[in-house]
Amino acid sequence: MALQNYYYFQIILVFGLLFIDLILTQEDDYDYDQHYEGWMEPITLGSLIKLQHENSGHLLHSHEISWGSGSQQQSVTAYPTLGDGNSLWQLYAKFGETNFTHASAIKCGELVRLKHVRTKKWLHSHHNHRAPLSHKQEVTCFGDENNSDGSDDWKVVCNKKLSKRSVGEGAINWWRRGESFSLQHVATKHYLFTSKKSEFNDGNCRGCPILGQFEVAASDRKVKGCRWVTAHGFYFRPFDFDEDQEKYLNTEYEDVKQ
Predict the structure, then answer these.
(1) CB atoms within 10 A of CB 146
(2) Closest CA to 82 of 20, 3, 159, 140
(3) Model pTM?
(4) How far apart are alpha carbons 220 and 190 in whole angstroms?
(5) What is the pLDDT along the chain (258 residues), one digit of tens a residue?
(6) DSSP assigned state of 174
(7) Are strands 137-142 and 74-79 parallel, antiparallel or unpaired?
(8) What contacts 20, CB < 8 A, 6 or more positions away?
(9) What is the model's pLDDT at position 158?
(10) What is the predicted pLDDT for the residue at 161?
């Protein structure tokens, strides 16, 4: 039965990818925040999502273009418009984790990996290379479907906490769609970061193919430039949602002070 369910999941995923290519690569012409019923439900493993920077509205993005300095691995930037398939990422369990369930809900504080859908490489960072503009810690895409390591692990840091009443009722602090969060690189404790101050332009990157995009790097502090929200994508509802909806929806939250 488990094997049958796995193949069923893969079939759904294939159709989901086709849907993404047909729909989500088109220009944004309506309010995507309201285009599905599951707004504010927990985010799940296997979902294909876009991550939007809170301050700038730019999307976490990658492409088959390498950094010209540092590690010279595949570059990661923040892209200014929603309608581009290179801003799509799929959520996986942390490196080495084999005992997980597809479409299981992700808690705040859990570790995940993000695979770039188009190039099949993992969102990655390391302490021994600097980003070209901000000189913060470099962020890249690296590896492939069969090659990953602990430097691909990111901790989901939610920027809202459960209210005292919800904690008393035994509620779980889920990573939810539409709520502010940060991603902390587990190996180096740095946070995924971008800023309009690190925009590629003719002055710092004349004639380069990423003009108008922002550099993405990793900050040693969780500043405002480290805040993201999930944008539109192909989301799987938690596999046991119908059996226990209250576990996922019956909560109250408070903002986390920076």
Answers:
(1) 6
(2) 20
(3) 0.84
(4) 5
(5) 444 444 344 445 545 554 555 444 444 443 333 334 566 789 999 999 999 999 999 999 999 999 999 999 999 999 998 778 999 999 999 999 999 999 999 999 999 999 999 999 999 999 999 999 999 999 999 999 999 999 999 999 999 887 777 776 678 999 999 899 999 999 999 999 999 999 999 999 988 899 999 999 999 999 999 999 999 899 999 999 999 888 887 566 666 665
(6) B
(7) antiparallel
(8) 48, 85, 88, 117, 233, 234
(9) 96
(10) 81
Identify any residues that bridge with 116 across adjacent strands, giving them in sequence order.
89
Q: How far apart are CA 118 and CA 138, in angstroms?
A: 21
Q: For 108, which DSSP code?
A: T
Angstrom distances, CA of residue 95 to CA of 71, 91, 184, 186, 230: 21, 12, 15, 11, 22
Q: b/e per residue, 206-245, with b = 16+ CB within 10 A?
A: eeeebeebbbbbbbeebeebbbbbbbbbbbbbbbebeeee
Half-sphere exposure of 174 (CA within 13 A, CB side): 24
Cα separation, 24 vs 12, whole angstroms:
17
Gap between the Cα atoms of 117 and 129, Å rounded: 25
Q: Which two tokens stand for residue 23?
A: 């729909």
Beta pairing, strands 154-158 & 89-93: unpaired
SS3 40: coil
Q: How far is residue 199's CA from residue 216's CA, in Å, rounded to a whole number?
A: 10
For 166, the enclosing helix (H) or strand (E) is helix 164-168
**Coil, helix or strand for 97?**
coil
pLDDT at 35: 35
Query: What region does 207 belong to: left with phi over 0, alpha with psi -120 to 50, or beta?
Result: left
